[in-house]
Amino acid sequence: MAQQPHPRFSVMSTSSLSSADALSPATSTTRFSLPSVNTASTSTRHAGPRPNIFDRSLNKTRTTEVSTSAFAFLFSEVVQYTQKRVSGINDLERRLNTLGYRIGTRVLELMAWRAESGSKAPKREIRFLPALMSIHTQVWKAVFGKPADAIEKSVSNEDEYMIIDNEPAIERYISVPRDMSQLSCSSFTAGIVEAVLDGLGFPARVTAHNTPVQGHPARTTILIKLEKSVLEREEVFKT
């Protein structure tokens, strides 16, 4: 049985193929003649091995940035792909959080590598607030190109902290339908933060919430709820 062509690709008909043969270098007229190709120079140009992306230095790519449009398109496709395979908003946010967690583990590993290779005495934060400041500035800048806007502590719950982002880059080109107004695609960002905190030794549950204000309709709050063991360790350090 003849293999059917993929619907996303068009296939030339027999007549078009015959017309294409009429324009080949062997049968074309002088007016439409094609220049001959120097096969010797072409083969020499690509004779050497191509550079492998895994051979690049992780430190030399420190300032490399991804196109915003490319990232927006990719993330939009991720959200649409995930949306078709979930039962509700909570399930969608959970899956986005899981995807972000995988990214966060790699971000932490990369930043730790660069810190160790760029300093003779790399420092590892053992207190929560300095680690939170590092996420607010260094991690945010490494992932989104700018620091977050603010850090807040809950007044009623001592185990809750918040990272505020007035204009999340991840939601800049995301349009959420009205029937899904409670959805926060920044759950992906929350997963990144949760992975970094877990890797640094500050286990927590991290969620994302839409908190729009005047002038910042896309304002997002990343809520960090620390485990009890973290608070107990912080009390030990105070004594």
Q: Report the top-level CATH class.
A: Alpha Beta
Percent range of helical residues:
40-55%
Major sheet:
4 strands, antiparallel
What's the arrangement of strands in the largest beta sheet? 1-2-4-3
Total number of distinct structural domains: 1
Proportion of strand residues: 5-15%
Can you write the helix and strand succession as a string? Answer: HHHHHEEHEEH
Overall structural class, as computed from helix and strand content, comes to alpha+beta
Catalogue the unreliable spans: 5-35, 39-44
Q: What's the CATH architecture?
A: 2-Layer Sandwich
User: What would CATH call the homologous superfamily?
Assistant: Trafficking protein particle complex subunit 3
Average pLDDT across residues? 80
Spatial separation of the terminal alpha carbons: 79 Å
Our count of helices gives 7
Rg over C-alpha atoms, rounded to the nearest angstrom: 26 Å
CATH topology: Muramoyl-pentapeptide Carboxypeptidase, domain 2
**Structural shape:** globular
The strand count comes to 4
Structure commentary:
- By secondary structure, this protein is of the alpha+beta class.
- It has one domain (67-237): Trafficking protein particle complex subunit 3 (Muramoyl-pentapeptide Carboxypeptidase, domain 2, 2-Layer Sandwich).
- It is 44% helix and 10% strand.
- The protein contains 7 helices and 4 strands, in the order H-H-H-H-H-E-E-H-E-E-H.
- The chain has a 4-stranded antiparallel β-sheet with strand order 1-2-4-3.
- Strand 1 and strand 2 (160-165) form a beta hairpin.
- The chain is globular and about 50 Å long.
